[in-house]
Amino acid sequence: MTLRIPHSAFRILAAFWRLNLAEELQYRANFVASVLGTLFYMATALLTLALFFHHTTSLGGWNYWEIVVLLGVFNALTGVIEAVLRPGIGQLAGEVRSGELDLVLVKPVDAQGFVSFRRLDVWRFTDVVLGLGLAGYALFRLGHTPSLAQLSAFGLSLAAAAVVVYAIWVVLMSLAFWFVSVENIAVLFDAVYEGARYPVTAYPGALRFLFVYLIPIAWTTTIPASALTGRLRPEIALVAAGVAGVAFALARALWRAALRRYSGASG
Amino acid sequence: MIKRYAALIRNAWLVDLQYRASIVLWLLWGVTEPAIALGIWWAIAGDGSVAGYARADFARYFFAVMLINQLTIAWDSWYLDRWIREGELNYRLARPLHPAHEAVAENIAYKARTASVILVVWLVVAVAWPAVRLPFDPGRWAVTAVAVLLAAAMRFFISFTTGLLAFWTTRATAIMDLHAGVSLFLAGRIAPLALLPPAVAGVAGVLWFRSMLAFPVDVLTGAVHGTDAIVRGLAAQLVWLGVWVGAYRLAWIRGLRRYGAVGG
Predict the structure, then answer these.
(1) pTM
(2) How high is the mean pLDDT of chain A?
(3) Which of A51, A102, B12, B186 has the smallest set of CB atoms within 10 Å of its CB?
(4) Rounded to a whole number, what is the distance in Å from the CA of A38 to chain B's nearest CA?
């Protein structure tokens, strides 16, 4: 039973994604626009960093190229967010308001998974490639060749980072049930996630505490980048996995509570 | 005209009232960027100073950026893009009032609400945190008010004109994003212009970017002082405002001709 449901859910999602891909392939100019947009965005991020380092030699104990590794990770995660998470959230807010969410809830699939992953903006996956490319180039400039342990710690903590980002996103989607008029609730995510562009050690104490424990964005970029450059021992990836697990469980609990509220409202 | 404006502003105010949560979100989004820039400069300055800016100077600068950016920001290119693409411009053209007036009224209602929130927050923070307090100086505040008004008018025309490009291209908002990316540096959103390499700061001063934000902010914090510097700054604002009004006239007349051709 527990095996069968995810399987069918995946088949349904796969069908959605195929349709999505076919639809997107009609608009190939969007691909060029998306890549240009990402390159411009990366350039402004690098220039901002260059400006900071025009006046300092280290930021929170990190040097320039170490933070570029972090920016690469940031960009890769942004790609995941833009490709997978953002396309669906506007739709959800509308469905909560109009009651169309009923149609999702009666489907024999997990509503959270379905709502989160039903739409893809495939072009934005190039951001993941560009981001990892940037991180790789920065590693080269650092003259650091990651060991196998560091690489696997990076892989695990990057996966954990994606889960943490997803958990924060689910919390926001759940909020859509309380503030139904908020179609642009994703703006709140952008505001918070902006903080992940720099190593968490660069911030004053209170902000650092916030980013590590309460809104755990430190785990999305600082930790994977640290694991890759060897700033932190590879074992940190196991902690990151634990954090991701807790964040996911909490987000899931909130989503359930939100769904209960929804059926209460429409009944 | 005053009665019309009162009605338009009241209408925009009431529409905004329905979307209070939305407005809070945009407000939060607007203050995070300066807050994070402040956090980073705070760390870099440490106990010393960067190009004459100590921690308290950065705090005042970025609080002023939060307030004045909110007062001068204009979302109109996004509205214009939608009006033109989805034909919502049609019924607006049929009214006996230029659509720009509706946009101006919306700006006033939105800014009155969000900027007063920031102002109150600033005052409350200033009670606890001396670093962000400004000296009592009504003369400087009056000059700041004029500079903010000019900056707001100019950013409105920049945004409106860029939105009008939707008559010709489907990527008008992308052009606005490009402009926002450049203004990150040249308008002083990420750092005071004094901290940019001199050549870059020079470009910002020759173009309209300094007039958009950095100049009013520097007047408020006192970084620009002396009659001469203030008069030159205001004059630059007036000149660029004139240029953008001209660009708007051109785009509006040419664009409408084109729009009519498509619709007719």
Answers:
(1) 0.87
(2) 84
(3) A102
(4) 11
Tell whether the model's pLDDT for residue A74 goes beyond 80.
yes
Residue B39 lies in domain: 2-263
Contact between A54 and B171 using a beta-carbon 8 Å cutoff: no
**Closest CA–CA distance from residue B48 to any residue of chain A (Å):** 12
SS3 readout for chain B: CHHHHHHHHHHHHHHHHHCHHHHHHHHHHHHHHHHHHHHHHHHHHCCCCECCECHHHHHHHHHHHHHHHHHHCCCHHHHHHHHHHCCCHHHHHHCCCCHHHHHHHHHHHHHHHHHHHHHHHHHHHHHHCHHHCCCCCHHHHHHHHHHHHHHHHHHHHHHHHHHHHHHCCCCHHHHHHHHHHHHHHHCCCCCCHHHCCHHHHHHHHHCCHHHHHHHHHHHHHCCCCCHHHHHHHHHHHHHHHHHHHHHHHHHHHHHHHHHHHHHC
CB atoms B26 and A184 under 8 Å: yes
- How many structural domains comprise chain A? 1
> Domain count of chain B?
1
